[in-house]
Amino acid sequence: MVRNLKNEAARGGTEWRNVVLNFECREASRLHLESPYSIFANIGGHSHCRINKTAYRVETDMFLLSQPGDIYDLTVDNHQKTELCNIHINKRFFDGVAATLQHTHEQLLNDPTSSRQAGIKLNSQLYARNDNINSILQLLRQDSTYDNGIFDDTLILLTEHLLVQHAGIRKDMEKLPFVRVAVREDIYRRLTIARDYIHSNYRHAIDLDAICRETALSRFHFLRLFKMQYGTTPHKYISDLRLKKAIEALRTSQDTISSIASDLGYEYPNSFIKAFRKAYNTSPEKYRRHEISNFG
User: Fold this and answer.
1) Comparing C-alpha atoms, which of 35, 82, 88 is closest to residue 58?
2) For residue 52, what are the β-bridge partners?
3) Residue 206 lies in a domain
4) What gap in Å lies between CA 147 and CA 140, rounded to an integer?
5) 226 inside domain
6) Rounded CA gap, 216 and 227, in Å?
7) 128: which strand partners?
8) pTM, 2 dp
9) How many domains are there within the chain?
10) CA atoms of 186 and 182, how far apart (whole Å)
11) Is 46 in contact with 57 (CB distance < 8 Å)?
12) How far apart, in whole angstroms, are the C-alpha atoms of residue 67 and residue 38?
């Protein structure tokens, strides 16, 4: 299902229109395209994206944002169906909405041109999904959103959500103990690359040196900065992420414990069982039975 919303392209220009791509597939490939403001989200399954030179795995708990000028590839190659919900927003529309949200009514009345001056640069990265973004995705998948002509309101809600997350990122940057803004931004960017690398590769054995190469930081400098930003070590972050994914798999799938362990990057099932028991004081099998008895 492809939904063309309003065409906001400049006359005679080649800008993206506002469009929602919502469809199921096992295989898909869109290569070397220049992005507008784009949100890559999945309702089910996972996809792989590359923005400029950085590779991402997009799962259902996060979405990937790219911004105008980014070059992206999108591929799906799964045994099970993946449902994609990708949203591409025209730059002029997005900037106009963002600028309007940044100004007071008095400012807009006194200077109408201020609504065309956003001056915001979002971060191309993975973002955690929450109830707000999930509700917006649900709206954009409903025919009534278009039949009732409420598409503009929905995209405004989406823009506002992205700006709130952007404000949160700026606050996180300010916590880094570096005086120069440029240094804080550069360190935050490198740490985000590391975090996104972990989220995209946690199903495989992750080598710390590989993360250091991605971030262009020395091992000890990276370890110090990572703990400063995320309050834990990369090893513990990876372990916690895998266990969080294990909980989801135990609740929603019928895969065997061995299969779940292998899918989450554990070399041996016993390593997974031991880590799970240490974290939750129960075995994966007992946890699954408990969930089934309470909610099944």
Assistant:
1) 82
2) none
3) yes
4) 12
5) yes
6) 17
7) 62
8) 0.87
9) 3
10) 6
11) yes
12) 6
